[in-house]
Amino acid sequence: MVIFYYIASFITFVLAIYAVYLLSKLSKQKALKKVADEELAKKNRAQMSSVVESIVDISKAMQQEQCPTIEGCVRLKVLIDQLRLSEEERKPFEVYYEVYDKTEHIPTHQAWTDLEKRQQMKFTRDMMLIEQEYQAEIKETVDKTVEHFKEVSEKMKSE
């Protein structure tokens, strides 16, 4: 009977040591996960900060007429999409989405260069008409965009 107690005690002792080993391993894994999560959050904040800065820069360039209106609207729409805003948060910038929708069929980059001059002129005329149609709304929205995203940028920097 004494041997049984020794064996049971030994088995209990081994199981206790194994449990401590597993708890130690779990603790290390949790610490590594926490560090990885913090790094990912830091990377995401840096990326979002960069997107916000780009939005402010493009908006300012549009205010100063250094960036073509249609191109600026398309770029701002794409950047705002990267922020994954809710429908309500995106509402003040809806004109960018409207301009994007009306111009998404127009070729860009190399596809634009490959077009015949006549096709380029047709698309340029279309862009001018869209720009005229939305000119006042775009100007107003660009001003709001600069102010809004400057505040967002400052808030992100202070965090």
Structure report:
It is a single chain. The protein has 159 residues and is mainly alpha-helical. The chain has one domain. Helix content is 86%, strand content 0%. The chain has 6 helices and no strands. Helix 1 packs antiparallel against helix 2 (69-82), helix 1 (2-63) crosses helix 6 (117-158) and helix 4 (94-103) packs antiparallel against helix 6 (117-158). The longest helix is centred in the first third of the chain and has 62 residues, at 2-63. It starts with a helix and ends with a helix.
Write the layout of secondary structure elements.
Elements: H1 2-63, H2 69-82, H3 87-90, H4 94-103, H5 109-113, H6 117-158
Helix pairs in contact: 1-2, 1-6, 2-4, 4-6
Offer a few descriptive terms.
elongated, 159 residues, mainly alpha, 0% strand, single chain
Structure in a nutshell:
The chain has about 160 residues and is an all-alpha fold. The chain has helices at about 1-65, 70-80, 85-90, 95-105, 110-115, 115-159. About 85% of the residues lie in helices and about 0% in strands.
Q: In the residues, how many domains can be counted?
A: 1
Bulk shape = elongated
Question: Roughly what percent helix?
Answer: over 70%
Q: How large is the share of residues in beta strands? A: under 5%
Could you tell me the radius of gyration in angstroms? 29 Å
How would you state the average pLDDT, rounded?
A: 94
Number of strands: 0
What is the makeup of the main sheet? none
First-residue to last-residue Cα separation = 66 Å
Give me the strand/helix succession: HHHHHH
The number of distinct helices, counting runs of at least 4 residues, comes to 6
Structural class: mainly alpha
Low-confidence stretches: none
